[in-house]
Amino acid sequence: MFQPTVPRTGFGRTLAMMELIFHASVRHVRKSNGNAVIGLLISVVQSLVGIGIMVLMFTLIGRGVGTQVRGDFILYIMSGVFSFMTHSKTIRAVSSADGPTSAMMKHAPMNTIISISAAALSALYLQTLSAAVILFGYHALWTPITIDEPVGVAAMYLLSWSSGIGIGLIFKALTPWAPDFFGVLATAYSRANMVFSGKMFVANQTPGYILVMFSWNPLFHCIDQTRGYMFLNYDPRFSNWMYPLVITFVLIVIGLMGERFTEKHASASWSAKR
Questions:
Q1: From residue 135, how far is each of 55, 74, 82, 99, 218 by CA, in Å?
Q2: How far apart are CA 157 and CA 250, in angstroms?
Q3: Between 20 and 30 A from 93 (CA), which of 27, 144, 153, 251?
Q4: Tens of pLDDT, residues 89-111
Q5: Coil vs helix vs strand at 17
Q6: pLDDT tens profile 128-158
Q7: Angle between helices 218-230 and 242-265 (to 10 degrees)
Q8: 229-239 average pLDDT score
C-alpha cells in the first residue's frame, strides 16, 4: 500500500535532472515548430538564405575572400553564418525561456535552470543538425571539403553557442523589469551583430582603426578563430579564444545571479497588466 521513498544519491539526482532537461528540450523544439522535421527544414532554409545573401553580396561588390584565406569561398561564408546563427538563435531561445511565473514552473521538479538548459540545448540541436545537413550536401553534391582542425572548429562553434547563453541570460534576467525596452534592445543587438560579428570580412585584412569597432564582440573572436582552425593557410592575428571564453564565463555568472534575483521578485501581475 505504502511504498517507502529511497533517497537519491548525488549521481541519481544528476541523472534525473539530465532526463528532465532532455524531455524539456524535446518539448521546446516541438513547441517552437510543432514538428521536429519542419523545425529542421526551417533552420536549414534560414541558414541557406544567410549563405546565399552573403554570396550574392560579395559577388555584386566583386570581392572574393578565397585568395585571402586561401581556401574554399563558400566554406568561408559558412564558417561565419553557422556561428552567427547559433549565437543569435541561442540568445533568443534562452531569453524567452519559461520563467518563474510560467505555468510550467508549477509542475515539480521543473525549475528555471532546467528551462534555460532545455532552451539552449534545443537551439544547439537544431542549428548543429542544419549545419551538418548543409555541409554534407555541399560536400556530396558540389565539391569535397577539407577542414584543417575539426576539433578546433567544433570548440569555437560551442564557444559561440556558450556566449549566446551568457548574453541570453542577461536579457532574460532584465526583461521582466521592462519587457518592451529590453525586448527592443535584444532585437537591436541581434541586428547589430550582423555587422559587428565580423562574419563578412577577413580580420587579418582589415585596418586597425576598423578592427577596434569589432574586437569587443566575443562572437567576432569566435568566428575569426574558427577560420583559423578551418583553413590551413589562415593564421588569425587579431583575435584569440581566451577573450570570449572569459567573457562568456562572466556573462553566465552575472546572468544566473540576475535571474536568481528576478526570480525572487518576479510576479505574475507584471505581465497581467500588459
A1: 16, 10, 10, 36, 24
A2: 19
A3: 153
A4: 999 989 887 766 565 655 566 67
A5: helix
A6: 999 999 999 999 998 898 899 999 999 999 9
A7: 140
A8: 90
More confident position, 195 or 230: 230
Cell of 192: 547589430
Picking from 190, 256, 264, 231, the residue whose alpha carbon sits closest to that of residue 65 is 231
CA 238 to chain centre: 23
Cell numbers standing for residue 112: 528555471
For 133, the enclosing helix (H) or strand (E) is helix 112-141
List Cβ neighbours of 197 (8 Å cut-off, separation of 6 or more): 80, 83, 84, 87, 214, 217, 219, 220, 223
Residue in 109, 102, 82 with CA at minimum distance from that of residue 28:
102
Give whole-number Cα distances, 240 to 69, 128, 160, in Å: 17, 23, 13
Q: What is the pTM of this model?
A: 0.85
What's the grid cell of residue 56? 550574392
- Output the nine-digit C-alpha cell for 61: 561588390
Are 165 and 252 a contacting pair, CB within 8 Å?
A: yes
Q: Which residues contact 13 (CB under 8 A, 6 or more apart)?
A: none
d(Cα 140, Cα 170) in Å, to the nearest integer?
Answer: 41
Phi, psi (degrees; rounded to nearest 5) at 35: -145, 130
Three-state DSSP state, 108: coil
CB 221 within 8 A of CB 123: no
- Let me know: does 190 contact 91? Beta carbons within 8 Å: yes
* C-alpha to C-alpha distance for 123 and 15, rounded to whole angstroms: 22
State how far the alpha carbon of 210 is from the alpha carbons of 172, 204, 207, 221, in Å. 31, 11, 6, 15
Average pLDDT over residues 157-174: 94
